[in-house]
Design a protein that fits this description.
The complex is a heterodimer of chains A (65) and B (168). Chain A has 65 residues and is an all-alpha fold. Chain A is built from 3 helices and no strands. Chain A starts with 6 loop residues before the first helix and ends with a helix. With 168 residues, chain B is an all-alpha fold. Chain B has 2 domains: 80 residues, Rna Polymerase Sigma Factor, Chain: A; 86 residues, Arc Repressor Mutant, subunit A. Chain B has 10 helices and no strands. The chains are: A mainly alpha (65), B mainly alpha (168). Chains A and B meet through α1, α2 and α3 of A and α1, α2, α6, α7 and α9 of B.
Chain lengths: 65, 168
């Protein structure tokens, strides 16, 4: 496969991605002013808490508790 | 005279180049919510980096650099190591690749899904028409590394797809 053959398909892909979601100025302003980074931190924390709980549960189960 | 605020200039800049952010998020995240979170994080990272942007590089190059690095970090931080199925090693699937995907933009998604996240970034930049030296700069790789990796991607995809699979 020649990678350049993919270029027209990539253009179509970009067009499709852009039409799926179009931001207006207000949307972008909202993102930079919102607490999106806090949300990201919370989701990361939730992810690690879930993993740790699962890990502890597995250890408890395998030890016969 | 009316003065433009930095946030207004930034907003206009992002609005004009939002296609880059959306296409990267689409390439890396399958679920709508993940895409939304990732695109917001990319905008925030761009906003943080904006005071340091001196306009030496093209705006699109700067956006690609920040967006791809953010996407790669998010993939690394949120997902457990993903098992990347090596289609090239599966001869039956490689023979029937054309039966698996549909045409157009879905074909690009199918191709991208065969690659690991860093290789995906390389292919995206190549498809965007960046030179090897620019790709190396954006992804902080060496020129030799870019050339080797792209040639590996090419031969991997060659094993999976035949010309009749993607010719209109």
């Amino acid at each position: 496969m020649n990678l350049d053959d993919l270029k027209p398909f990539w253009e179509a892909y970009k067009q499709e991605a852009q039409t799926e979601k179009i931001w207006q100025e207000a949307d972008i302003q909202l993102i930079i002013q919102s607490n999106a980074s806090q949300k990201m931190f919370i989701s990361q924390l939730r992810y690690w808490l879930m993993n740790t709980s699962m890990y502890l549960l597995l250890i408890l189960c395998t030890n016969g508790c | 005279m009316k003065q433009t605020l930095p946030s207004q200039t930034f907003t206009a800049l992002i609005k004009a180049h939002q296609g880059i952010i959306h296409s990267i998020c689409k390439a890396y995240f399958a679920h709508h919510e993940d895409r939304q979170d990732a695109s917001q994080e990319i905008v925030l990272q761009l906003w943080k980096a904006y005071p340091h942007f001196r306009g030496e590089a093209k705006v699109s190059t700067w956006i690609y650099r920040v967006a791809l690095n953010t996407a790669l970090n998010l993939v690394k931080a949120h997902k457990p190591p993903t098992f990347w199925y090596d289609w090239a090693e599966d001869e039956d699937l490689a023979d029937n690749a054309s039966a698996v995907f549909v045409e157009g933009s879905d074909f690009v998604q199918f191709v991208l899904n065969q690659l690991n996240p860093p290789d995906k970034a390389l292919l995206i930049l190549h498809l965007e028409g960046y030179e090897y030296a620019e790709i190396a700069q954006i992804l902080t790789l060496t020129l030799t590394n870019v050339s080797t990796k792209l040639s590996r991607i090419k031969s991997k995809l060659k094993k999976i797809f035949k010309p009749q699979d993607y010719e209109p």
